[in-house]
Amino acid sequence: MAEEVFDSPDPWVARHIRHYVETGGEARPGVPDLLLTTRGRRSGRLRRTVLVYARDGDRYVVTASNRGADEHPAWYLNLACDPRVVVQVGTETFAAHARTAASEDKPRLWRLMVETMPVYREYREMTDRDIPVVVIERTG
């Protein structure tokens, strides 16, 4: 039997995940979203969220903006403990490895994310936290 996956406890995010699954990834036409499943660092449960992504060659890039909050989102803390993740893009699901972008790559990848979703610039101005950029590479 497959292990149960728990969607984000944030009601807006949970609704967005359900709509994403129901529409095969067309929840917000024109916005590149993916579903990211991490293993909870404390609970050990599989946790799923939805994130805007950009492509960097074969890699997927996301940012742990947390809408400009002063703390990292739970999904980022989870993958920092266990970088093995599952990604769904559209109707395709695959295993992947996630890591924080290296300091030399981060400025270019941050610009890529801001080009994809300009509101990230505002989120950056809302916090003193260094917002991580995450690189996701397919493993399976």
Automatic annotation (TrEMBL):
PANTHER family: F420H(2)-DEPENDENT QUINONE REDUCTASE RV1261C. Belongs to the F420H(2)-dependent quinone reductase family. It catalyses: oxidized coenzyme F420-(gamma-L-Glu)(n) + a quinol + H(+) = reduced coenzyme F420-(gamma-L-Glu)(n) + a quinone. InterPro entries: F420H2_quin_Rdtase, Split_barrel_FMN-bd. GO terms for cellular component: plasma membrane. This is Nitroreductase. GO terms for molecular function: coenzyme F420 binding; oxidoreductase activity. It comes from Planobispora takensis.
